[in-house]
Design brief:
- The chain has 441 residues and is α/β, with parallel strands linked by helices.
- It has a single domain, classed as Glycosidases (TIM Barrel, Alpha-Beta Barrel), CATH 3.20.20.
- It is 32% helix and 17% strand.
- It is built from 14 helices and 16 strands.
- The strands form three sheets. Strands 1-2-4-5-6-7-9-16 form an eight-stranded parallel beta barrel, surrounded by six helices. A five-stranded antiparallel sheet has the order 12-10-15-14-13.
- The longest helix has 20 residues.
- The N terminus is likely disordered.
- Belongs to the glycosyl hydrolase 18 family. IDGF subfamily.
- This is Chitinase-like protein Idgf3.
- One of its GO terms (cellular component) is extracellular region.
- Keywords: Developmental protein, Disulfide bond, Glycoprotein, Secreted, Signal.
Length: 441
């Protein structure tokens, strides 16, 4: 084990020591079209998209899905995407921003019915896979997208508790590599099948000078499904979902940093739950630096604290009770957009607020290694407890600086509709998007 670690460290050092030419940084802006259908301050309009596109190099429209019966690409929201012509409206913005590439993403965290259908597609054989390829190509070309993004709903790592003590942390880490947490016993076969699909899809799509990208969703084990050396030449970019390592849904009983930049050494955690580890995993497989984009979430994950969670808030926080109540704008338990988080931080408007509107205490990270968190201890009745791990413009800029220092391809922001696109917090619209862009320059 020790010699393997030394070998990997030396190999990585050699890779990083090689001279690489600086490349223009990507800023890949994910757009969840559900934001267009939200109400009130959370509604994301085409005018908001037009402002955001001044900063983006790519926009990835989410999401299309997969028909479980035919294995063809299917439009998930026909009333919006087709009848209201939202596909066409978004791609039409390229007339004003001709340098931007707009891709259509398949899967994401939106195509949740019959999730096993993505494995079924891999197992379906070339003839059935060709039906997916042909349907995807037809949709992309019909609506003037510049390419396709594969964000397949492949089986996720099993959530597990890893923080009890040093012995438990080692046992969990060991189980991860010895198979106790295997969720797909046919992963080797599926990896080969995914490679075949990417190759065939690339050959078809490149005939029309279109782009093909891969988005690795959080908690999908890259080594199980992606043979990086075999597929990278068929891909234009790879977007790593380097966030949501822990969430209040997957880890309801303990709260922790959801997207640390580096391994958190002060407590017993799994060593791969950080941005740097995920980046190095791909880099060690000789993936070109300029094809790797690091994912940054524009939202925070929020847990409900209980009386047993204590009053200090220092992670790892135990005895949490799953997702915190939904925010007024996002209406999703356990998820708060940046505007909702910012308005909970101490300010003149909430100084005397009570209950769920009471201010939270912000705890920053001067090391810029782990991230921010904010919390409100539960009251004497066990109510109103809240713990949030989140990015803000400063931490997003730090991660963009990391990308620049490593000479990586760029940043993928997940997503535009959860940034403070109305400027509710400080008056600056898209503060996270702007902070990332300016640091990448």
């Amino acid at each position: 084990m020790r010699f393997t670690t030394i070998y990997l460290s030396l190999a990585l050092a050699m890779l990083l020591s090689q001279p690489f030419e600086a490349t223009a940084s990507n800023l890949v802006c994910f757009y969840d079209s559900r934001g267009f259908e939200r109400e009130g301050l959370a509604q994301f309009t085409l005018a908001d998209m037009e402002l955001a596109m001044q900063f983006c190099t790519h926009v990835i429209y989410g999401y299309a899905g997969l028909d479980a019966k035919t294995l063809e690409l299917q439009v998930l929201n026909q009333p919006l995407d087709l009848q209201k012509r939202h596909f066409a409206s978004v791609t039409a913005l390229k007339q004003k921003f001709p340098y931007i590439k707009v891709l259509l993403s398949v899967g994401g965290d939106r195509d949740l019915e019959n999730e096993e259908k993505y494995i079924k597609l891999l197992e379906a054989g070339r003839q059935n896979q060709n039906r997916f390829i042909e349907s995807a190509l037809e949709t992309v070309r019909r609506f003037d997208f510049d390419g396709l993004d594969l964000a397949f709903q492949l089986p996720r790592n099993k959530p597990r508790k890893v923080h009890s003590d040093a012995g438990m942390a080692w046992k969990s880490f060991k189980k991860f590599f010895t198979g106790d947490f295997i969720v797909d016993e046919e992963a080797d076969t599926h990896r080969e099948q995914f490679t075949d699909l990417v190759r065939d899809l690339s050959h078809a799509i490149k005939q029309y000078d279109l782009l093909l990208s891969l988005t690795v969703l959080p908690n999908v084990n890259s080594s199980w499904y992606y043979d990086a050396p075999s597929i990278i030449n068929f891909l234009d970019i790879v977007n790593l979902g380097t966030f949501d390592f822990l969430t209040p849904t997957r880890n309801p009983e303990e709260a922790d940093y959801t997207a640390p930049l580096y391994e958190v050494l002060t407590q017993n955690r799994l060593g791969h739950y950080n941005v740097n580890y995920q980046m190095e995993h791909w880099l060690l497989q000789r993936v070109p630096l300029n094809k790797l984009n690091i994912g940054i979430a524009s939202y925070g994950r929020a847990w409900k604290l209980t009386k047993d969670s204590g009053v200090e808030g220092t992670p790892v926080v135990s005895a949490t009770d799953g997702p915190a109540p939904a925010g007024v704008q996002t209406k999703t338990p356990g998820l708060l957009n940046w505007a909702e988080i910012c308005q909970l931080l101490p300010n003149p408007g909430n100084a005397n607020a009570k209950g769920n509107a009471a201010p939270v205490r912000r705890v920053g990270d001067p090391t810029k290694r782990y991230g921010n968190y904010a919390f409100r201890a539960a009251d004497e009745n066990g109510d109103y407890g809240l713990w949030i791990s989140y990015e803000d413009p400063d931490t997003a800029a730090s991660k963009a600086q990391y990308v620049r220092a490593k000479n990586l391809g760029g940043v993928a922001l997940f997503d535009l509709t959860l940034d403070d696109f109305r400027g509710q917090c400080t008056g600056d619209r898209f503060p996270m998007l702007r902070a990332i862009k300016y640091r990448l320059l």
